[in-house]
Amino acid sequence: MKFNYKKSLLLTGVIALISFSGMKAQTICSNDQGSQGGYTYEYWKDNGNGCMTLGSGGTFSVEWSNIGNLLARKGLRPGGQNVVINYGANYQPSGNSYLCVYGWTTNPLVEYYIVESWGSWRPPGATSKGTVSTDGGTYEIYETTRTQQPSIEGTQTFQQYWSVRTSKRTSGTITCANHFAAWERMGMNLGNFYEVSFCVEGYQSSGTADVYSMSMSTDGTGGDTGGDTGGDTGGGTSDQGDGEYTLTVRARGMAGGEHLNVLIDNQAQAGINLSTSWQEYEVYVDRGDLNLEFDNDGGDRDVQVDWIEIHGETRQAEDMEYNTAVYQDGSCGGSYSEMMHCSGVIGFGDITYQGDSGDSSDGDTGSGAHSIVVRARGTSGGENLRVTVGGTEIANYTLGTSFSNRTITTSATGGINVEFTNDGDGRDVQVDYIQVDGATWQAEDQGTNTGVWQDGSCGGSYSEWMHCGGYIGFNPLRSASAANKATMEQEKQETNVSIYPNPVVNLLNISVAAEEEGPFEAIIYNSNGAAVKQFLAQPGNNPVTLNDLPSGIYFLLISVDNQSFNLKFLK
Q: For tag attachment on the chain, is the N or C end more exposed, with fewer CB atoms within 10 Å?
């Protein structure tokens, strides 16, 4: 949408800080900003009718009609890179509007949006630069330019960065750092944070929005930074049960006294009484399908579940599709949220240990066999994965909607492909990683992914997601004899050059292991074969700044101990 507004209040040299602590609500109908409930707030409109009501903590509501442009938000100033937001909203726009994370950075001057839901028009009307998958959904990334428009630094030309969710939602968790990191990988650099806020924006429209829960944290826990009333009710307790497995649940209540049942195959095996502080509760349960049930909703009671841990595996609540207790789209029930506002359950899937079930492993266990673990999930359930090594099929199985590990043993050698074979009917696959003989290879670090949807078509790289039928290619397996030979050669000759991270944002680390003292001449070439940087490297780590290079594919050529190394990397 084309905005033509003056965010003049952002430019004032003196900010009136008005405290409303002790008041349940304050309604603002004229442009204003300040602090309340442990957060900064701002209400701004250019013309038309509208009012913002400040609630406790991060909560607020707003209504508007026949507005030109309106923004209502609460957040943190200056905010920062690692803000995590948990929110729930009853959002009813009529016309053009966003429900989003909003903010600015300086040096460079950037206005940014993480859009969760929208009205009649999906922003920003540009060509997507790629996607990022986080917090149970996929977001398309955009970059647009605002030419000589109002900003926090006056009238300026500046960039806008966007992450726009592919499907609307009105409650859940937003891990801002995941979006910021994805933007950086695409060359969309941020500066110093001016603010991170949760925002309702309207443009030539009418509507209402009740942000009935909103908390921000900067430590990754999703906890509230302020605005809660009353003290902690003390430590929580649990009826631990007597099952064969140890299950850890990290959760808290909003009021204190909330109760969780731990259900296995819909039978209660343990219970947890929550306090208002984050705690980790240890209970003992049997194998089967795990649900956490909030069973005493009422008053101000709500539950926030961070994660569960079983057999050393952590399952995040916001990654779970089945949540009958979250309040979404005006009613109880939804997906991908830590929050339980209604009585109901979050389903965490089957917790049966691999060693207890014959259907979680495949392949041979003979001499020279490799162990491969594939961690993946489907978005609908019923997605099919085919695992091949060197073109030989070693496993073929069906996924559920929760992350699970599949262990495969094989003596085959060659490249490892994890293939999605039955795309259709809303099915998608998310591959977290594979482990080969104990070494972990992340899916998002792999350069070949024919199943990801990028730049408007199937096929790309560096993503966990497969939206199309296709495969993610991993490093090749070698035979035991080849591995032993390589080990002997490594012991005989220790010369090596490696680089990290890859892809790189601005700082590339070049690690050189050499018998000679150095220095060693190093040259970086672009994809056209032109030398763009030349320097001398020493044994050990050599950090090289690449701020002056645009995004693209590059090659490092370096000669060490009379050996040439040519390493490809992506910026």
A: N
